[in-house]
Amino acid sequence: TESVSRVIPSAEVIYQFDRGVGRGRIIKASAGVDGSVTEVFRIIRDESGKVVSRQRVDEIRVEPKPAVFKMGRQGFATSRSSFRRAKIKTMESTAYDPSAGRGAAATFKTRIGLPARFGVVAVDPRVIPLRTHLFVEGYGFAYAADTGGAIKGNKIDVCVPTAREARQWGRRKVRVHIFHR
Questions:
Q1: pLDDT tens digits for the chain (181 residues)?
Q2: Report field, pTM of the whole predicted structure over 0.70
Q3: Largest Cα–Cα distance of the chain, in whole Å?
Q4: Rounded to whole angstroms, how far apart are CA atoms 64 and 7?
Q5: Rg of the chain over CA atoms, in angstroms?
């Protein structure tokens, strides 16, 4: 007999909410594990040792296991327990509070009509589509529901409860986990 193995790479990443993980934090719970496929062949040779026939007699398959990350549940509320990641981007972030831009025409509503509140972020829709679920490291789970005049390209603006918290946030680089719809 002869066996041939090949690796099935573990590219999948699953995110789960965990009340034990602090606000805006993400913890790697388990690393992804590659899978494999091993095919077993029966080899029949003639008197000179030349292969006459080769028959597959068995296949042993070990499925890959996804990497699992635990996330703090702060931010935009959701009823789902886990998401699949599409990609991660490092973005420049700023913060605003719901009263930002107060004036005669202020509606306190986001671009898609939700009230501005913690867990809502402003994005450039050409980079991250509106209505996309996100996890912003250092902030928490969020929903892309708003746009902004200064939010162009690789920038994100997170909504925090007070102007004081917005000043404390300042301008910083953050890793943004973007999820499948």
A1: 788 898 887 767 777 777 787 766 777 788 888 899 999 999 988 989 888 998 999 999 999 988 888 877 655 444 455 566 668 889 999 998 887 655 555 567 788 888 888 889 999 999 999 988 888 888 878 889 988 888 999 999 998 888 898 999 999 999 898 886 5
A2: no
A3: 95
A4: 9
A5: 25
For the record, the structure tokens of 48 come out as 């000179």
Rounded to an integer, what distance in angstroms lies between the CA atom of residue 84 and that of residue 68? 10
Which amino acid is present at 19?
R
Please choose, from the candidates 170, 93, 79, 181, the residue with its C-alpha nearest in 3D space to the C-alpha of residue 136: 93
Let me know: does 169 contact 163? Beta carbons within 8 Å: no
Q: Is 172 exposed, middle or buried (0-12, 13-18, 19+ CB in 10 A)?
A: exposed
